[in-house]
Each structure stands twice: as C-alpha cells, then as structure tokens.
Specification:
Arc Repressor Mutant, subunit A
C-alpha cells in the first residue's frame, strides 16, 4: 500500500484533472498541487520524482503532471476507502457531513481493503458519499459523473449532485440555507460581471444570493434536458 503522503498527492492530482483544472496535455500544474496540499512548490516538485519512480505519475518539468494507469488504480482505491468511511461515519456513527472529511483522512490510510469491503456491503453498496462524490466499486471503476459547476449555467431548473469543497464552515453554511446533494432548485439569474447568482429552492420563501466562490463548488445537472 502506498504511504499516506503518496496517497494524498495522488488525490490532489486526480482532483485537479477530474475537475478540469489542467494545462495543455491534461497536466495538473505543480503549483496547484502544492496549493491544494498546502506545501511549498519545491516540496511538491521533489515528490513528483517519487511518484514517477513508483510508476504512478507522468511528470514533465515546468509543464505539469498526470496520473498513469497505475496511479489511477491507486487513487481509485484510496478514494473508495475515503468515501465509504465518510458515509459510514454519517449513517452509522451520527457524524455530521461537515465533520467526516478530516476523520476519513486519518482512517483511510489505516483501513484494510477487507474492512472497507465489509463496510461497503453493510451500507448496501452505495454509489455516492455524503458530499455526493461517486464511490469507486471494488474493482476500481467509478460511475460516470455528468454534473458540471453551477457557474456553467445561466438559468434553469437544476439538481445539486455534489459539493467539492468540504471545509466544515462551508458545509455548515450549506446546511443552514438548505443546500445538499439531491436538492432541486431554480437558478433565477446570474450576473457574470459581478460573479453573483440568485436561486430559489422549492418550498422556501426566500431567494438565496451568493457569489463565485460558492458557485464553483456546487456541481449540478439540468432538469430541463
């Protein structure tokens, strides 16, 4: 099993490439990897050489990095563990969805595949975690996610699929205003220049107004296709 540090780098690279934050050739910028992991760029660059030695990454100096097939398999394994553990903590131990990311970060490196498989069966082979992220199956296959960011839409009826920012403060705020995976709402208007939008959740009397920093972390699908 890769070290916890290696696994964290694999998750960071996957997150950037999966969400389209890449350079030419599908490469994730080392600066963005470093920013995501809160380390110095030089530290991240040094780690790239280890990922290459392990066969997990294709690193091109001054250009960026992407996962190899071996790296993709490794990150699917750690994401499976992380997301199943998050769901277990919410559904069986009564944790709030704002609490589980940090707990799962610790547990994912210690839990065996056998334990994760048992928890997966106990949970009924779920396909998404509490934040809406898809859970890879035991063979490392992750269901396709056709959602895109809220800021890709101008108006219309939408369903919130997943939330990509998992800080407790952000998730607590979403809970307060009634936004969670599965909720349906209308995007009434969007002001690109101001970076603001207005939405209306069914059965809630007040509209919600928020900015770009919220929109870019809410992933939705259209209900009008």
């Amino acid at each position: 099993m890769p070290s916890s540090t290696v696994e964290n780098y694999l998750k960071a690279i996957f997150k950037l490439t999966n969400e389209g934050e890449v350079e030419e050739g599908g490469l994730a910028a080392i600066g963005k990897v470093a920013e995501l992991l809160e380390v110095a760029p030089g530290t991240a660059t040094t780690m790239m050489k280890q990922l290459v030695r392990l066969g997990f990454a294709d690193y091109q100096p001054r250009k960026g990095v992407k996962l190899t097939s071996e790296g993709h398999s490794a990150v699917m394994n750690v994401l499976r563990r992380h997301r199943i553990l998050e769901l277990f903590l919410v559904e069986n131990l009564n944790f709030d969805w704002s609490e589980v990311h940090e707990e799962a970060e610790v547990l994912e490196h210690a839990a065996s595949d056998r334990l994760i498989d048992r928890i997966d069966i106990m949970l009924g082979l779920p396909t998404r975690d509490p934040h809406g992220d898809p859970i890879p199956d035991a063979s490392g296959v992750m269901r396709r996610d056709d959602s895109n960011r809220l800021d890709a839409h101008e108006s219309g009826h939408l369903r919130l699929v997943r939330v990509s920012r998992t800080t407790a403060e952000f998730l607590d705020w979403l809970s307060e205003v009634g936004l969670h995976p599965g909720i349906r709402f209308e995007l009434i208007s969007r002001d690109r220049m101001a970076g603001l939008c207005r939405i209306k959740i069914k059965d809630q009397p007040e509209e919600l107004h928020f900015g770009q920093d919220v929109m870019e972390n809410l992933w939705v699908v259209s209900l009008e296709n």
